[in-house]
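dumping these here so i dont lose them again. two proteins, back to back, each one seq then structure tokens. dont judge the mess
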Amino acid sequence: MRRLGVAALVMMALSPALADAGVARLWAVNDGEKIEQDDLGSPYVLDLRGMNKTWDGHTARLFGARNEILAFQVMVESDGKGIQALSVALPELRQRGGKVRIVYAPPGADPSQSAGRPIQIFAVHYLNVTETSHADWVWKPGSPAAPRDTTGWKPVQLVPENARGGRGGLPLRVEGSRNQSLWIEVYTPRDLPAGLYDGVVTVTADGRATRLPVELQVFDFTLPDTNSLDAMVYYEPSEPELYHGRNLDPAYHRFAHRYRIELVHAYDETAVGARRGRFDGSDFRPAAGYEGPGEGVGNRMVPRSFYGTPPAWDVRDEAWRLADSWMTFLRGAVPSAKTFLYMPDEPARSEFERIRTLASNVHSNPGPGKALPIFVTKHWVPELDEAIDIWCAGPQSFDIDRAKKEHARGRSYWTYNGGRPNGPAIVIDAPATEARAIAWAAFKHDIDVYFYWHGVHWQHNRQKQGERKQNVWVDPITFDNRGQPNKTDHGYINGDGVLLYPGEEKVHPQEDRGIAGPVASVQLANLRRGLQDHLYLTLARQLRLTAEVDAALGAVVPRVFSDAGEGVGFAETGDQYEAARLALARAIAGASKPAGAR
């Protein structure tokens, strides 16, 4: 087929009426690309370089399994005069040749209420990154591992369509010569028949509309509700309480569940008992307003302590009593729980003696408390060899051979956070797919839990000098230890520790979106994509599709952790992940068919 020029293909979708309404271009792209607000020459506009399989100049195409959340971006580029009122709609996706429909319903005040809402619409909010992240543990500035494009107006928050006017709610005002991403999510229910589904996205600018066809291919298999890779993200309830002016913990946990992550902190028996629905799954059922992945499945990450261990555990008799009580309680209350006692965080050698004491106090227990694992955020060191049950190493210090040896000894070896080139860096000024890459790396090297150090790091920790109540809707830097007298590694990072944003803003009321709950980020959406990809890889392995799994891993994560070189050895564009996922989907669907089926 003859390839048309860029302008001709764009105009295939752009009606004359819309062209007169301040729209210069209209196109679509997958959810794994960050198209900056001022990047008007993006190579993703068309698939002329094999970079955008979602868009052919006419139709946006999606594919997936049942029980999966898929997303794509409708990109609107304004002309020099701009757009005063921009909105988008996708009323339904209808089964081709059938009667089944995936139907849109408008959002309510609580963004975590997803029952009856398989189609959701968001407007991307952009942050102006003027300073490249500067911290050796993320990447060394100027090194081959550093991302290529780190400054500019970066897409960050996914603001629900019903947000306050002027603060991301539809319709939007778009300044002249700017991109605006309209983000559309589609959940494919468990009972959805396989096949093709058709819909039409209507984009309206200043009262004039145009229509973009959408095609969804649903493969004949279903993603499990239980994750094959657990993702725990630290959650500090005081942060939402400060910024929202009230406690919204149920909404935050329900919202996180739809993204297949668990928000975690320290628990004891009383805390678990008071939040029983979070662990038995009743908080994640339609009766509680929840529909989507993990419906009816409870959380299973239940740490006994977090970011350190209270002094009571230093006394052996008290440690035995606490551990016995906890492990006995969990066996009845949360039988599938993954629990641990968190040692001093990223410990220095001066803390090793206390860690050995704490570990001995637990391991010497003759009762059920002996089974409580000892967890440390550090790579393996011989001084702690007999003390630790769960090692959790960052990508920069993750030794693949050592992890295999620890697995063989019955110990766990997890990973946390990120850092190039050994692993991805989940920050604003790195590619969108960084968060997706971590799940592929975890699958390749048999890691069963990923830990991210904070999800709502809005009020900066005490490493920061001066005002700590940050305006995270304006300032992209969320980690900053510049000015610390005892620090030699004066770092600052864009978006570090922030996967969720406050939908209400009582600290900076001019930024209040009027959303009674959390707002997601591009990073969080891509983390979910990675967790879903992990399920694809797991299903393929269970079906003995060894060649297909190896090919996918070779294409996406050929070199990670201690295999890494000076430059990044994992995929950095959404299309690379989508190509691997499509090959896996076809193989899984083919292998899942009963004998004799066509």
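---- next one ----
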Amino acid sequence: MGKSVIIVGGGHNGLVCACYLAKAGWQVTVLEKRPIVGGAAVTETFHPGFRNSTASYTVSLLDPQVIKDLHLREHGLEMVTRPCNNLLPLPNDEYLALNADANFNREQISKFSAHDAQQLDRYNRDIGAIAPIIKVLMASIPPKVISGGLSDIFASISVARKFTHLEPRHKRLIMKLFTVSAAEFLDDYFESDPLKAIFGFDAIVGHFDSPYSPGSAYVLLHHLLGEVNGEVGAWGHAMGGMGAITSAMAEEARLLGVKIQLETGVAALKTKGNRVSELITQDGQSLSADLIVANVNPRMLFLDLLSADSVPDDVRQHFENYKCQSGTFRMNVALTDLPQFSCKPTQSMLAAGIIMAPSLDYMDTAYRDAKQIGWSKQPIIEMLIPSLLDPSLAPMGKHVASLFCQQFDPTLESEWDIHRQSAIDAILNTVESFAPGFRALIVGQQAHSPWDLEQKFGLVGGDIFHGRLSLEQLFSARPMLGMGQYQTHLDNLYMCGAGTHPGGGVSGLPGQNAAKAILGRRVFKKLQA
């Protein structure tokens, strides 16, 4: 019999890690506190006849190798590409729409700036030159910077070699992306507010900060590294919602012999010597395994699940100061009809990510409002209407809309129980300003504040990435220097969640990389399809 492992948390990264370990002959048990597997990537009915992706809501970063290795398409996963990538309605009833057609995009952009239409190719070439290298690094185990061995030296050399063939200007570009603000980065290419807004939105997704803040340019890049059905940079929809992804993963896991226990939250990890000796569930069960893999926020792992005396002082201090918060307020709404936007886009454009934030200054004001009063008076909103692509989500002729909203102060925590309705009103008033009559279409709704996202899904601080994507929390330093290789200070305790490299976004890469670290690269390679 193979070694035994317990994975704490049945989100997508835990399921990915479970599948690879089971392929290697391990006895794998996944513990999930909710009655449904999938973590934040789930589909649920939120109003009679209407269902939608509850938290995570769109697909792009899911790694093609994970899809292949876990046979997700064979298990029914179908993904469709949005016919239009993004739509930016503007207050003067104009709009900017972007899709995969370069000529269409240049025509759209030229409505606002001939200069920007010409610059678009340069921007795309520059991003296209560096994105493949970053993607390779995302699927790699970072080398140890502290107390590394010979393998880490070779890994560091391998990382360095990936950059040797880049032009000097692209090397400088990578340095800028990790250090400057999204606004400064975009200013180097473009002059028009609408184009900078439609690109700059990616810099504040799940990032409780201003697009003028240093480091936000990398958050922008992080969201440009995906693909759907082989189309690089595309965004799409998983038919049946995001739960279709994790349901397919769970089916593969069960076929491989993985035991998935629902409604089994973990209360504590007990240690003996330098190992986790016992896992205590919230209902009082005592479990043990050769290995424990935590698919939870690292802050939760080190401050809540492990006792203070089992965590070194420097580790505890690090995670007490770990930057972990997102200004996300997430809504789903059931609609009697399609919203009618004042800018009058085509119906195919309504299948895009509809970004209601017409400028970087608007986004900056939203953040400053949230810091001052707790929530944005005019929030940043991305609306998706997935029922246009997937009629199974709503009754015939009716629709569901996802509202991914920023900025809302996560430090209010349980005070959100008092302020939730004020936030909802601000969100719906903002949508109404772009799509008059929107409120009248609503027959049901679901709302999750940052606090709700923490309580329901374990997203500490409402953080969809399980930790800020800033330079001091990336690559070998994610979630901490010395633990960037998925193993903790305890011999048999590993991590596989979005708080590890390369971060969040429903990619499956943290789970894949963790399995690679546990099994060793050679063993792992033999398991791949």
